[in-house]
Amino acid sequence: MYERVEREKTFDELLAGLRNSQDKMDWIEAQNLKANELKLLFFKAATKGYLDVVQLLVSLPDLDPTALNNYALQSAVANGHLDVVQFLVSLPGVDPAAGDNYALRWATFNGDLAVVQLLVSLPGVNPAARDNEAIREAAKRDYLDIVLCLATHPAVTVTEDMPEQLQQIIRAVKINQNYFTVFQTPEVLQETKYEILEKGGAELNRKPSNGLYFIHSLNV
Q1: SMART domains annotated for this entry (predicted)?
Q2: How confident is the model at residue 27, as a pLDDT?
Q3: Could you report the per-residue pLDDT of 95-147, keeping only the tens digit for each?
């Protein structure tokens, strides 16, 4: 039998105890955790990227994976835990677009291409939310591959208040939609990618160094 951990223990220590236990369900029962404590433990597991714990906790009858406006999903995204994100978005009721597409904006700010690709593929996610904030921020941070990923989405279109170079890139992507839709990783056919963009009218610095960027217009 597992002994109940003293309540003054932090949730990090509780999480460590759970992960180190052989029978995790017995360990949880021994702790006699309240619903709010289980929720906080769930949030902590998602933040840390402990997929096994996340999966276990969501199997409990009183655990709502959508609690606090899908906080667990947003925290997993913010910390780059793709496997946890993939699991959470597969659960009924979990909304990847919660908080005006907060998860997508976090993934974009972090430069996390894999999470961005996953999120934009999900129903309801709008990469053009908040005046195209995601693609503007990706351009500002010189995340060219995220800019290209977002630009392939039908919701993202050129607006007059965008910097000219960002407009050029979006137009070039739309013209060559088939190529950029199948484009997956930064390592694949880099030179071809740049040539297609430039032929589409986008101006790029193809060899960034010493503070130079692929995307020149950072005031986005």
Answers
A1: ANK (SM00248)
A2: 87
A3: 999 999 999 999 999 999 999 999 999 999 999 999 999 999 999 998 988 99
DSSP secondary structure letter of residue 218: -
Please say whether the beta carbons of 163 and 217 come within 8 A.
yes
CA dihedral 173, 177, 181, 185 (to 10 degrees): -40
List the structure tokens of 203.
Answer: 């101006």
Q: Which residue shows structure tokens 């960002």?
A: 166
- State both tokens at 126: 């709008």
Planar angle of CA 151, 143, 83, nearest 5 degrees: 85
Joined together, the tokens standing for residue 19 give: 């992960």
Tell me the two tokens of residue 214: 């692929």
Q: What is the pLDDT of residue 104?
A: 98
pTM of the full predicted structure?
0.82
Task: Please state the three-class secondary structure of 165-183 as a single string.
Answer: HHHHHHHHHHHCHHHHHHC
